[in-house]
Amino acid sequence: MAGKTLYDKLWDAHVVRTEDDGTALLYIDRQLVHEVTSPQAFEGLRLAGRQPWRRDAVLATADHNVPTTDRSKGIADPVSRIQVETLDRNCNEFRIQEFGMADRRQGIVHVVGPEEGFTLPGMTVVCGDSHTSTHGALGALAFGIGTSEVEHVLATQTLLQKKSRSMLVRVDGELGKGVTAKDVVLAIIGEIGTAGGTGYAIEFGGDVLRQLSVEGRMTVCNMAIEAGARAGMVAVDDKTIDYVRGRPFAPRGEHWEAAVEAWRDLHSDPDARFDRTVVLDGSRIEPTVSWGTSPEMVAPVGERVPDPDAESDPVKAEGMRKALAYMGLEPGTPITEIRPDRVFIGSCTNSRIEDLRAAAEVVRGHHVDPGLKQAMVVPGSGLVKQQAEQEGLDRVFTEAGFEWREPGCSMCLAMNADRLEPGERCASTSNRNFEGRQGQGGRTHLVSPAMAAASAIAGHFTDVRAL
Amino acid sequence: MEPFKRMSGIVAPLDRSNVDTDAIIPKQFLKSVKRTGFGPNAFDDWRYLDAGGPGMDNSQRRKNPDFVLNQAPFDRATILLARENFGCGSSREHAVWALTDFGFRVVIAPSFADIFFNNSFKNGLLPVVLPEDQVEALFQAVRAEPGLELTVDLAEQVVIRPDGERLGFDVDSFRKHCLLEGLDDIGLTLQHADEIRAYEKRRREEAPWLFEGRGA
Ligand code: SF4
Asked: Among A116, A166, B26, B37, which one has the highest count of C-beta atoms within 10 angstroms of its own C-beta?
């Protein structure tokens, strides 16, 4: 018999029962909850007179709607305010632990979970949010679910799931200087396409993944969903264990020792078989910029906006034309001639301390281009913000003309006051460049934190390696 | 949940691939704490010429005449036809709620994003996967005859064209059963509560750290 993949191991350990057609009842170890996808789930519980199955397995925090400016005035938008207050009320009523808006630990769910050690290797982790795949970086099976499923997990601690197929994305070799986890994942999506991972759980492996920090692996797993895969994951190694050690919710003492021993097995066996394997050469990945309205529409910074007329697939060519029209770009334009109006450094993809350090390094001693309307940094959590301030990064940013904000999703999806105006162009470290994602008519270019910082200084996209 | 057995209706052709859930229901409408009322804002950015927000009177807004769902008879469509990777992006179930609230009962596409696909079944919306060439043929048929009706029969797993041609599709037997009967997933799962407890007991012994959720 062939060995098991990491995905097989995680899956098998969580099956409670299986239906005849293979649908499994999967046990869920952790659920994260935010204000946008939970109100209808709590309402469902209330209507059915049900209680949460296991309160200690749930952690809530508000992130999508929260203001990133001075919070002492509360939330100005009454509709956003109701949603955040509804979360507070639901957590109170159902006695679920919540990091409220005033809590220093509040932040984007996918930053908070690992940071607290609430999500751990070997766990099944869900959240009513597609970027739950982030937690897979710890060697966990983590995926986004819909609101009906949020309610199902609250009520039963389980989910009905069909097992996905397995894909290995191996990135061999070594990354060049100035090339980051974000460039790696954009290159992967560019390679396999936004639907390439549909129906699969992806394991990211190879030398490059081993070299990446756990935070970098989170950036990669975060965007698994942008390649169509619900779950992305990375095998456990010493880095994972060092990352988890000592975090507030991490096991201690004897339990820690036992946990580490179990986690050491969280990798694919050498003879494990994947349904599909994709191999990339890490040394050929370059700083990458998205030019269209889908995360597969990317190009290395040194190249030009592609020409739809050169695309042989007519459906694809039409998609490119629509994207370029929306983005206000001409085929053949050098990427380095594109000028953003705003620069956003933040989101669950790139708002951890390493991201802020990487951006600050580029910014230090420079000033944002006067042509820019705004450049902002939004840390992923209150604790990231605090750490950055201890390191003096906030001053590096503010002295260069960046705004330094309170933690939250912010301009990643513009549900709060931070958004693009129609036609505005943004260099963004977030994960989605869909039409209207950052504000109606807004145009998003996905980049790494270092590339976003460099574009803020130069006033146009520029190769961070040349600085 | 409302059961789904068999239905017939007008097909609206939405000739795009990668239709994402941000497009199906833009984020400003996610601020609602309810499950209903999303229909008037389905595809809001494509459907209206002005910027929409929660609480607006949508009947007073300027509609985009070029958008298919604003054109008769597609404004009465109950079957949506689209290209590959429909429903990608955000996990928001609001996208499904917006489609059902608009009146759709079926979406036909060559492929769907996983989370959207799951969410659909929980809400009585049937996602039908047909091969690309059959989808292309349906697009051509609808273009030739706007207002064309299809019949979708879940028990038999077929889409039936007006000329009687039957296009078979796959569906997991467990999902099919739940949708045909309109079963409540949670109630169904709770019938296995003892098995869940037995699993927990075993895991607590094997991996006790999984059960100490409280922070230091
Ligand atoms: S930062 Fe963006 S992608 Fe991440 S959870 Fe928030 S809205 Fe979603």
From this structure: B26
